[in-house]
């Protein structure tokens, strides 16, 4: 079933096109080489993804600041590994992580293929809750910036998905009506329901095969977008 009357497609970046977990692991591998930390990297990485996801949800809901996000996700991961690391070391690691992370360039399987498939047919865009400079570096390092007509980030907009403000801003700067736009992302609340709330269509990218909702089309591989677009 093809989706009709769509002119513009908005992608989330992290966990949708840009492989956050793989790139994050690479950043931590460098950090663990640079610092003598009292925990093995494999043990650290067992806990970090879920802890990071928890604090990103709190950040998205404006319950913590970005500085608190950067500190707390590391602090809790070390605590779960039953090791003590000073605040000074955590601050240094947090800064190094932010500097290293966007320089990695791993994309999800099929990203370039689907962007090349969609580019001649639609205007492509990004809507991301990441920081402006960091997300711009990710797009550049992974060599996909040229695919997108616009990039809307929460830092520049002053609102995070699923807040309607960020979606409406992205639509407005492109002179779009919501019914002509499609959002594709991994987060059911931020990407899918946020987009639907403002009148956009949405597709949920569920790489872990665990989505059970009926809010929108669900795909598990980016290549499946060809079935609908």
Explain what the structure shows.
α2 (41-60) packs antiparallel against α3. The protein is an alpha/beta fold and 229 residues long. Strands 3-2-1-4-5-6 form a six-stranded parallel sheet, sandwiched between helices. The model has no long low-confidence stretch (mean pLDDT 96). It has nine helices and six strands; from the N terminus they run βαααααβαβααβαββ.
What is the chain-wise order of helices and strands?
Answer: EHHHHHEHEHHEHEE
Please give the alpha-carbon distance between the first and last residues. 9 Å
Share in helix: 40-55%
Biggest sheet features? 6 strands, parallel
Shape assignment = elongated
User: Which spans of ≥5 residues are poorly predicted at pLDDT below 50?
Assistant: none
User: What's the Cα radius of gyration?
Assistant: 18 Å
How do you describe this structure in short?
The chain is of the alpha/beta class and 229 residues long.
What keyword list fits this structure?
229 residues, 9 helices, 46% helix, 12% strand, six-stranded parallel beta sheet, alpha/beta
How are the SSEs ordered, and which strands pair?
Blueprint: E1 8-11, H1 20-34, H2 41-60, H3 66-80, H4 87-100, H5 111-118, E2 123-128, H6 132-141, E3 150-153, H7 154-157, H8 164-173, E4 181-185, H9 188-197, E5 201-205, E6 217-219
Parallel strand pairs: 1-2, 1-4, 2-3, 4-5, 5-6
Helix pairs in contact: 1-4, 2-3, 3-4
């Amino acid at each position: 079933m093809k989706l009709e009357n769509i002119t513009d497609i908005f992608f989330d970046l992290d966990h949708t096109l840009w492989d956050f977990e793989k790139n994050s692991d690479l950043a931590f591998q460098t950090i663990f080489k640079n610092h003598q930390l009292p925990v093995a990297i494999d043990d650290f990485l067992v806990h970090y993804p879920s802890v990071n996801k928890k604090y990103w949800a709190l950040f998205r809901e404006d319950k913590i600041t970005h500085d608190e996000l950067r500190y707390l996700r590391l602090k809790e991961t070390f605590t779960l590994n039953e090791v003590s690391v000073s605040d000074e070391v955590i601050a240094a690691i947090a800064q190094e992580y932010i500097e290293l992370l966007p320089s990695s360039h791993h994309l999800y399987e099929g990203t370039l293929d689907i962007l090349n498939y969609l580019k001649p047919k639609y205007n492509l865009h990004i809507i991301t809750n990441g920081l402006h400079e960091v997300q711009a570096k990710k797009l550049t390092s992974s060599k996909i910036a040229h695919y997108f007509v616009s990039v809307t980030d929460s830092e520049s907009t002053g609102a995070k998905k699923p807040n309607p403000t960020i979606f409406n801003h992205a639509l407005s700067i492109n002179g779009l009506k919501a019914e002509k736009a499609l959002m594709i992302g991994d987060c059911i609340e931020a990407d899918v329901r946020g987009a639907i709330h403002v009148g956009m269509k949405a597709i949920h990218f569920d790489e872990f095969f665990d989505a059970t909702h009926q809010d929108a089309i669900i795909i598990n591989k980016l290549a499946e977008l060809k079935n609908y677009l």
